[in-house]
Amino acid sequence: MVSAGFRKSRVGAGLVAAGAVLLAVNLVARGGRESAVDASGGAGAQAAGEARPGIEVLLADSIHLVGGRRAGLVTNHTGIDRRGVSTIDLLHRDARLELVALYSPEHGIRGEAEAGELVDSGMDPSTGLPIHSLYGATRKPTPEMLEGVEVLLFDIQDIGARYYTYVYTMALAMEAAGEAGIPFVVLDRPNPIGGAEVQGNVLDPAFASFVGMYPIPMRHGMTPGELARLFQGEFGVDVELGVAPLSGWSRSDWFTDTGLPWVAPSPNMPSVESARHYPGTCLFEGTNLSVGRGTPIAFQQIGAPWLDGEALAANLMANGLPGVRFEAVRFVPENPGDGKHGGVEVGGVRLVATDPGYDPTEAAVAALIEAAALSGDRWEWREAAFDRLAGTDRLRLAVEAGASLEEVRAAWQPDLIEFRRVRERYLLY
Question: Which position among 234, 238, 249, 290 has the lowest Cβ density within 10 Å, counted as fewest Cβ atoms?
Fold first, then answer.
C-alpha cells in the first residue's frame, strides 16, 4: 500500500523537521499553522485581492535572515514580482546579499526548451552569473556547482500537478543543500489551480521517477513551500529549510484571484485553464492520443486521426461527471514534442470546466476508458511512460480489464484519504 510508503519515509524524519526554520515569520517549521498565516498576512500592505509572492516578502521583511551571504538561486522566467521584475535582477541588485550562481530546471532558465529537451549550462547575459543546468548532465546540484554558495534559494511557479518536474528539481536541490551544509529557502508562490482540492491517485513509491518522486496525488493542492515542508518532514530530505511565505493568498484562491501576472511556466502550458485540466489530461502523454501540444489550448483537448469526436463526447457526457462538459472538436497538433500526429487533423474532445470543484483526474480516467473502447485495435499504451505518470501500473491494467470509473475511483480512495490527513501538518495558509 502507498500509505506504508508514508510510514516508512517518516522514520527518523522528526529530527529533520525540528530544525526547519520558517523564514519571514521567524518560526520553527513545526510551529502553529495559525501563527504562520497571521505573520504572512501582515507582511506589508497591498491591494485587496492582490497576492505578494515570497520574493517580495523576503526583500521587504526578512532579508536579514539571508543577508550578508553568498546566494545561489534555482529559478526560471516565472520567478518574478508583481511588476514582472525577475527575481534574478531583484537579488542581483540588492546590496544586502551577493547573488553568485543561478540554476535552471527543465525548459531552461527562460522556459523555451521543449519537454524532455536537455538544457546546457551557460552564462546569464544581463548579470554575468553562471547558469548551472539541472536538466542536462545532472538533475541535482553537484558540490562543484555549490562551491562558494552559503544559502540556496528556490523561486519557480509550479502548476499543482504531481507530474510537473519543477518541484522535484526543488527536492533534489534541497538534498544537495543539506549535503553541503547550507540552508535552503523557498520563495513561495501560489498553487495556480487552488489549494483546496486534492484529487487523483497517490503514487506508488515503486514507480517513483522525475515526474513523480514521492507518494503524492495527481492534484496535490499545495504550494512549493508547503511541498518542501512535506518532502522534509515525510520523505527524509535532510536540510535546514526556510519558506518566505506568500502574502494575501488563501487556499480557495485560483491564480486569477491573485492579481499576479501569468507567465506560461513551460511552452505547452499557455494558460491557467490548461493547468486546470493538466492533472488529468497529462496521462494521455502515455498513450498514442495527442493532448493538443502546440495549440493555444494544449492539455484542454485530446484526439487522434481515427477518433469520432461526437461519439466520444456523447459517451463521456453519459457518465454525468459534475463540473465538466465534453465537446467534440477537430484540431491539428503543431508541436512535434510529443511525437504524435504533427500536422495531421485529429478528432476528439475538448474538456470544458463548468464548476471550480471539477475533478480533472476523474474526467481523465473516464476519457481513457471511453477513448480506448472507441479506438479498438488502434489504441496504444506507451506503457513505461504511462505507468510513470500514473505512478502505478494498476490504472493501465484496470482500463485493460474493463474496470468502470467507479471501480478505479474507489481503489485510490484509502491512500488519498491518508495523504489528506498527512498533508494537514504542512499547510501554511
Answer: 238
